[in-house]
Amino acid sequence: MAVTFCQNIYLELSSLSSHLVLEVLSQVPPSRLMIGSDLPENLEDELGKIVHLDADSRTRADILWHTAWNVLHAPRIAAAVRTEPV
């Protein structure tokens, strides 16, 4: 998987079954994985797959929201609070 070699690649897990998510987790840290849903009709299934995943609560939290927050919001917040030296 390219994600194991490239630090700027993240995986969205909507197309994987629970056992495949666990296989990915054996090779990729949860801080590089995030939940997704291809269709609104799949949202409940996708949430349930991660909520009931046989993993610790921190791993599930990373997949459910920490990774997405870090990718989508943290760089903008850091840029907003960055100041130029005087």
Descriptive report:
The longest helix has 16 residues, at 57-72. It contains four helices and two strands, in the order βαβααα. β1 (11-12), α1 (18-25) and β2 (33-34) form a beta-alpha-beta unit. The N and C termini lie far apart (45 Å). 48% of the residues lie in helices and 5% in strands. It is mostly helical and 86 residues long. It has one domain. It has a two-stranded parallel sheet. The protein has helices at 18-25, 43-51, 57-72, 74-81; strands spanning 11-12, 33-34.
Stretches with pLDDT under 50, minimum 5 residues:
none
Order of helices and strands: EHEHHH
Q: What is the first-to-last residue Cα distance?
A: 45 Å
Strand count, sense and closure of the main sheet? 2 strands, parallel
Q: With helices defined by DSSP (H or I, 4 residues minimum), what is the helix count?
A: 4
Number of extended strands? 2
Strand order of the largest sheet: 1-2
> Residue-averaged pLDDT, rounded?
87
